[in-house]
């Protein structure tokens, strides 16, 4: 504890003292406390606190707040908090802090619920459920606010954050959980006084635990997807440092276009992945070609033009990419059939590939590279419009233009080598524009390289 700042030590001590003072009525008038109910709920809280990622602690504490007077409701939280899992040191200081925090929150919720329902006795029946619902929601909201406010104070005293940053972000999010936890805990309280007794109240926790397990699995799967994509993008960035950051920007631009087209949900996420991973096939291209500063030979151009097929093969086994694989393979196709690798025309080109082609060309023209300076956004849009119908899908170009009018574009500057070579015009097939972007920023009618 002594490793903490003095202000944090004083703050935790004050919270613990306040929680202890809230428990004084239990000592003074212990005979009026339903000790069996308090001990049962404390045991359930202790079990929940020992389980990894268990979301049931708050509903149980709120059920205690609805069933017990404030002093006893505050004590229910103590055993679980003192024995709960803590991921960071100092362990016992954090446990003491959590005990004080949850004890104060539960006592405050119990006091609010008691005042709004007329006080003891707290035997809530099924008939009284509708009338107790609003008090339960108010008590759950008070619980969440107390926890959030106390957490913000800990951040201010322990980490030196400003009060504005400590509370501004968490407070809006604290308003959502009470909508779920309040009715759940109230249902537990009603079942508690049913003919089946306290064990039946625990049945309410079963569907919550299953739902929480499913959501946790979904979050883990999504995190694994994000980690896979990040690893592939970092590998490309390390190999071709001239285009570092390009993949992320193409992903952003692809999402802007997709939203204008009405693409949402999982398809929008898949399209973002397609934009981010469109150049993953460069991992199969020799580094010397990607970093070559002079013009490329026809043979070298043919090697680089294989990167869409390399990329498609690399991600073939990654199931969650779905439609993104087609975009990775076909984002260099052109409507007039002059693209690669298969020379597809018009609607033969998958929709995602047509979106990524426009996003890729736009970022290539608006980013500074070793062989070209960034063009202004209006100039890049004019060039895309000029090529619409022959190279790019006009719908995608129009969607990008509308999205930029609405949201603007603020790309991060792409890294450059410390000593760039003399200006040269690349004749590598640009990720898409039918123009070469020379180092002086003037377009020439040839191929280019992104």
From TrEMBL:
<dbReference type="InterPro" id="IPR037522">
    <property type="entry name" value="HD_GYP_dom"/>
</dbReference>
<feature type="transmembrane region" description="Helical">
    <location>
        <begin position="56"/>
        <end position="76"/>
    </location>
</feature>
<feature type="transmembrane region" description="Helical">
    <location>
        <begin position="96"/>
        <end position="114"/>
    </location>
</feature>
<dbReference type="InterPro" id="IPR006674">
    <property type="entry name" value="HD_domain"/>
</dbReference>
<dbReference type="InterPro" id="IPR003607">
    <property type="entry name" value="HD/PDEase_dom"/>
</dbReference>
<feature type="signal peptide">
    <location>
        <begin position="1"/>
        <end position="18"/>
    </location>
</feature>
<dbReference type="InterPro" id="IPR052020">
    <property type="entry name" value="Cyclic_di-GMP/3'3'-cGAMP_PDE"/>
</dbReference>
<feature type="transmembrane region" description="Helical">
    <location>
        <begin position="126"/>
        <end position="150"/>
    </location>
</feature>
<dbReference type="Pfam" id="PF13487">
    <property type="entry name" value="HD_5"/>
</dbReference>
<feature type="region of interest" description="Disordered">
    <location>
        <begin position="407"/>
        <end position="428"/>
    </location>
</feature>
<keyword id="KW-0732">Signal</keyword>
<feature type="compositionally biased region" description="Pro residues">
    <location>
        <begin position="414"/>
        <end position="423"/>
    </location>
</feature>
<feature type="domain" description="HD-GYP">
    <location>
        <begin position="221"/>
        <end position="416"/>
    </location>
</feature>
<dbReference type="InterPro" id="IPR006675">
    <property type="entry name" value="HDIG_dom"/>
</dbReference>
<keyword id="KW-1133">Transmembrane helix</keyword>
<protein>
    <submittedName>
        <fullName>Putative nucleotidyltransferase with HDIG domain</fullName>
    </submittedName>
</protein>
<keyword id="KW-0808">Transferase</keyword>
<keyword id="KW-0812">Transmembrane</keyword>
<feature type="transmembrane region" description="Helical">
    <location>
        <begin position="196"/>
        <end position="215"/>
    </location>
</feature>
<feature type="domain" description="HD">
    <location>
        <begin position="243"/>
        <end position="365"/>
    </location>
</feature>
<keyword id="KW-0472">Membrane</keyword>
<dbReference type="GO" id="GO:0016740">
    <property type="term" value="F:transferase activity"/>
</dbReference>
């Amino acid at each position: 504890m002594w490793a903490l700042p003095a202000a944090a030590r004083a703050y935790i001590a004050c919270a613990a003292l306040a929680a202890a003072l809230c428990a004084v009525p239990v000592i003074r008038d212990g005979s009026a406390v339903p000790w069996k109910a308090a001990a049962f709920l404390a045991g359930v809280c202790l079990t929940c606190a020992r389980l990894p990622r268990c979301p049931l602690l708050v509903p149980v504490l709120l059920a205690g707040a609805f069933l017990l007077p404030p002093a006893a409701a505050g004590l229910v939280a103590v055993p679980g908090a003192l024995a709960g899992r803590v991921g960071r040191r100092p362990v016992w200081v954090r446990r003491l802090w959590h005990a004080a925090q949850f004890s104060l929150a539960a006592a405050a919720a119990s006091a609010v619920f008691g005042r709004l329902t007329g006080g003891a006795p707290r035997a809530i029946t099924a008939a009284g459920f509708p009338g107790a619902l609003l008090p339960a929601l108010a008590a759950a909201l008070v619980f969440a606010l107390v926890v959030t406010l106390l957490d913000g104070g800990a951040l201010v005293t322990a980490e030196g954050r400003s009060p504005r940053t400590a509370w501004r972000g968490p407070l809006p999010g604290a308003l959502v959980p009470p909508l779920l936890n309040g009715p759940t805990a109230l249902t537990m309280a009603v079942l508690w006084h049913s003919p089946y007794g306290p064990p039946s109240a625990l049945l309410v926790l079963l569907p919550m635990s299953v739902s929480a397990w499913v959501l946790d699995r979904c979050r883990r799967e999504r995190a694994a997807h994000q980690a896979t994509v990040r690893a592939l993008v970092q590998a490309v960035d390390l190999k071709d440092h001239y285009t570092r950051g390009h993949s992320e920007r193409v992903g952003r631009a692809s999402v802007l276009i997709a939203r204008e087209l009405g693409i949402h949900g999982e398809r929008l996420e898949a399209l973002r992945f397609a934009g981010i991973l469109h150049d993953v096939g460069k991992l199969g291209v020799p580094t010397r070609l990607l970093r070559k500063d002079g013009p490329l030979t026809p043979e070298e151009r043919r090697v680089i033009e294989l990167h869409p097929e390399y990329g498609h093969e690399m991600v073939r086994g990654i199931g969650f990419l779905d439609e993104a694989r087609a975009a990775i393979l076909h984002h260099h196709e052109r409507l007039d059939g002059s693209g690669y690798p298969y020379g597809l025309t018009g609607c033969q080109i998958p929709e995602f590939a047509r979106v990524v082609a426009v996003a890729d060309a736009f970022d290539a023209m608006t980013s500074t590279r070793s062989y070209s300076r960034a063009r202004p956004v209006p100039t890049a849009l004019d060039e895309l419009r000029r090529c619409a119908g022959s190279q790019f899908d006009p719908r995608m170009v129009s969607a990008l233009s509308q999205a930029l009018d609405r949201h603007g574009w603020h790309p991060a500057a792409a890294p450059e080598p410390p000593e760039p070579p003399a200006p040269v015009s690349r004749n590598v097939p640009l990720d898409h524009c039918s123009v070469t972007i020379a180092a002086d920023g003037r377009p020439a009618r040839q191929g280019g390289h992104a």
